[in-house]
Design goal:
With 347 residues, this protein is an all-alpha fold. 76% of the residues lie in helices and 0% in strands. The protein has 2 domains: 36-174, Formate dehydrogenase/DMSO reductase fold, CATH 1.20.1630.10; 177-316.
Length: 347
């Protein structure tokens, strides 16, 4: 047997190039599934769409204050409806209103759930101000004051909206569930891009219904760009799961197959193909553009739902959890090995 090769001082071994062969507790799950169900899956979609709608409203207001007045109004209405619906979905998931109040009593900067509670609260407050400005805005003194308050609240509403579109990804990836913890960065990009695509698609449908083809085409371009970015993030997330060893074979996992179908086909390839055909048709593309926007909305809702379900399924695989936990602890273990080698007394 040849002697072991010495470890290079400046080079770490490839982390977990081989599968996990350690022990488990009779192959029973090492972590519990999350208690989140349909209400949270719907909240993930609604909150992201509402938050991105405020971001698009702020951008449109800054770029074209006069020509985008109708678009800004509809974006604020969508954001208000999403904020109210999202809060209701969370209360339904918590089963009791008192839990929501108790979450507001404490602020923990290290807790994504605590931060998310305040993100949602601030988003609802500032979005409510923009809604009141649109509802009571007019030429009278009270109406002008309401419109002014709405314009002042637009920037903080957009900032909170950006948080609404992304904080749920941070919440998922901070758990010990392998399917989420393995892909923190790609998951954040997936959630952000799908939120922008959904908001642009919803606004595009509204603009098509009004007959404003120019605004609809601009929103279609935003939705298509965000959809392409979402597709790239989905590919990156799938590659990251495979490299960390927490990706199940599609033939053995209906949840993983459904997630890939939602991410790659329904929320990615299909809308992009429809948007491409609509662009080629030009002025005759109204119906095709609306179908593409509907595919974006349906695909991103299915993407959030399958992300939730496939992550919960990954919690049932203890080897995936221990493989990921060991991979995360490798740098610390290597440092400890070097320390023991350095501190070992001379014989």
């Amino acid at each position: 047997m040849s002697p072991a090769q010495p470890r290079s001082p400046g080079r770490e071994p490839e982390p977990l190039a081989r599968p996990y062969t350690g022990g488990t507790y009779y192959d029973r799950p090492a972590v519990k599934r999350s208690p989140w169900g349909r209400e949270v899956a719907a909240y993930l979609f609604v909150s992201g769409l509402a938050g991105a709608a405020q971001v698009l409203a702020a951008v449109a207001r800054a770029v074209n204050p006069e020509g985008s007045r109708g678009l800004v109004r509809r974006a604020r209405f969508i954001a208000t409806a999403g904020a109210a619906t999202g809060a209701g979905l969370l209360v339904l998931d918590l089963r009791t209103k008192r839990r929501w109040y108790n979450m507001l009593r404490i602020f923990r900067p290290t807790s994504p759930m605590s931060i998310g509670t305040y993100v949602l609260s601030s988003f609802g407050f500032f979005t409510g101000l923009t809604f009141l400005g649109e509802l009571f805005g007019g030429r009278r003194l009270m109406g002008r004051a309401a419109a002014r308050a709405a314009d002042l609240a637009q920037v903080p509403a957009a900032l909170a909206g950006a948080g609404m579109a992304t904080y749920t990804a941070a919440l998922f990836s901070s758990t010990s569930t392998p399917g989420w913890a393995a892909v923190p960065e790609p998951l954040g990009v997936q959630f952000a891009t799908s939120a922008v695509a959904s908001a642009a698609a919803a606004l595009s449908i509204a603009e098509h219904a009004r007959g404003d083809a120019a605004q609809a085409r601009a929103l279609d371009a935003v939705a298509a760009t965000a959809t392409a970015a979402h597709l790239a993030a989905s590919v990156a997330a799938d590659a990251r799961r495979k490299s960390t060893g927490v990706s199940e074979p599609r033939a053995e996992s209906p949840a993983a197959a459904s997630r890939d179908l939602a991410d790659f086909v329904i929320a990615g390839v299909l809308p992009l193909a429809l948007y491409g055909c609509a662009r080629l048709l030009g002025s005759r593309s109204r119906d095709l553009s609306m179908i593409a926007a509907g595919a974006v909305l349906a695909g991103n809702y299915l993407s959030r739902m399958t992300t939730l379900h496939s992550g919960n399924r990954s919690a049932d695989h203890p080897r995936d959890y221990f493989r990921l936990a060991r991979r995360r602890n490798l740098p610390a273990l290597h440092s400890a090995d070097r320390a023991r080698t350095t501190l070992q007394p001379m014989r």
